[in-house]
């Protein structure tokens, strides 16, 4: 498949669902949970149901393989070899370089590994299709692609919020969880979207809670040092700064942050009137920090527009709406499930390590701005010409959570 078409498809959402009234959904969940508790009956009945639905035998078998370093390494190696072979076949450089070698069958595997492979070959799927028929065949190369940056997750565990939002956990709305994904426009083509982060919120939390937890590089820009209406330097930042304003548009209603007398929602509606747009967007009666998710009717796979920091646009997509499970975390919402790896620029001097400074107006460098790492900027020393107005702008710092 053409790479341009792949990126275009990745920017599409859908099919969309019907609008889900979260308030009614929470009430239905409460009624259903109450009826299920009453219909379970005695402890003997619950025990029999648990035994009938138990998959302990399958779990023990899988954990036996997972806890064996030899068997686990064998499965990893065969899987990685098959995937590498498929990615080699789909590369655009296939004609100029050797294709990845196909997975070769080992001739002298250990006895435990041979037994595992024999079991895999003998297992029937639904007693009809053998597992050998669902392995990755060479024809699967037509439907695979190498991993992109958005396929990797920088989080190794679910990240909880630093401080719990003031939300009663015993409320009906708190028993409904909403999974949302934020997207942003890539800088090289604004018509293409890339996944940025994924979060889980309780329906009792607000749009403001979502905005506060979602990461964005625009919030990490350094603060300017201004004297006599002139920028003379920048302050280093160690974390995310507060946004200067925000508006979220849901169901043709613009929810502002109410930080100023005329917030982003007012400015958006004013802009639409000036440009004589055919849009029917109106300002909502409540601000985003006063609008719980339970008061909205949301659709799954429909992008909702968000604007902040002047012209930084995001699209928020609802992935899932479900009731809270007993194994879900009790506190710490909003949860962060995914965050895209940061795309770091390399130092233009040594081209070996990521840059941490953007140097502006230095005649000794070939470009302005010029991205440099810490050691290169330190070894360069102070500017030789006193008349040169050189600014060293610190680049955003990223953390691995």
UniProtKB/TrEMBL annotation:
Alphabetized Pfam families for the sequence: SNAPC3
Record-linked InterPro entries: snRNA-activating_su3
Keyword match DNA-binding: yes
Keyword annotations from UniProtKB, A to Z: DNA-binding, Nucleus, Transcription, Transcription regulation
Keyword check for Transcription regulation: yes
First-listed, main subcellular location of the protein, grouped into a coarse class: nucleus
Subcellular localization: Nucleus
Family stated for the protein in its record: Belongs to the SNAPC3/SRD2 family.
Listed PANTHER family: SNRNA-ACTIVATING PROTEIN COMPLEX SUBUNIT 3
Protein name: snRNA-activating protein of 50kDa MW C terminal-domain-containing protein
Organism (species): Lentinula lateritia
């Amino acid at each position: 498949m053409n790479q341009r078409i792949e990126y275009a498809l990745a920017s599409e959402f859908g099919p969309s669902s019907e609008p889900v009234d979260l308030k009614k959904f929470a009430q239905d969940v409460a009624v259903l949970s109450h009826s299920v508790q009453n219909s379970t009956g005695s402890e003997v009945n619950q025990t029999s149901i648990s035994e009938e639905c138990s998959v302990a035998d399958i779990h023990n078998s899988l954990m036996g393989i997972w806890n064996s370093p030899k068997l686990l390494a064998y499965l990893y190696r065969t899987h990685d070899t098959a995937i590498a072979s498929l990615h080699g076949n789909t590369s655009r450089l296939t004609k100029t370089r050797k294709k990845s070698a196909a997975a070769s069958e080992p001739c002298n595997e250990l006895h435990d590994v041979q037994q595992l492979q024999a079991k895999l070959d003998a297992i029937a799927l639904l007693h009809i299709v053998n597992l050998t028929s669902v392995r990755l065949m060479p024809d699967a190369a037509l439907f695979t692609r190498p991993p992109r940056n958005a396929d990797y997750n920088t989080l190794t565990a679910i990240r909880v919020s630093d401080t719990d939002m003031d939300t009663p956990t015993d409320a009906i709305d708190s028993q409904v969880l909403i999974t949302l994904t934020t997207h942003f426009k890539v800088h090289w083509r604004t018509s293409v979207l890339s996944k940025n982060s994924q979060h889980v919120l309780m329906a009792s939390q607000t749009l403001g809670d979502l905005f506060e937890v979602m990461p964005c590089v625009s919030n990490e820009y350094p603060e300017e040092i201004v004297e006599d209406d002139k920028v003379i330097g920048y302050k280093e930042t160690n974390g995310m700064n507060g946004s200067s304003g925000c508006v979220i548009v849901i169901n043709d209603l613009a929810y502002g942050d109410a930080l100023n007398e005329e917030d982003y929602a007012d400015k958006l509606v004013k802009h639409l009137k000036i440009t004589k747009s055919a849009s029917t967007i109106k300002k909502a009666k409540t601000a985003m920090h006063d609008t719980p998710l339970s008061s909205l009717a949301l659709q799954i796979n429909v992008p909702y527009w968000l604007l902040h920091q002047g012209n930084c646009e995001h699209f928020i997509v609802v992935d899932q709406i479900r009731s809270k499970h007993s194994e879900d975390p009790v506190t710490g919402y909003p949860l962060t499930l995914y965050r895209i790896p940061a795309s770091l620029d390399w130092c233009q001097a040594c081209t070996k390590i990521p840059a941490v400074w953007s140097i502006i107006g230095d005649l000794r460098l070939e470009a302005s701005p010029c991205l440099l790492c810490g050691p290169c900027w330190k070894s360069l020393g102070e500017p030789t010409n006193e008349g040169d107005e050189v600014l060293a702008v610190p680049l955003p710092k990223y953390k691995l959570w």
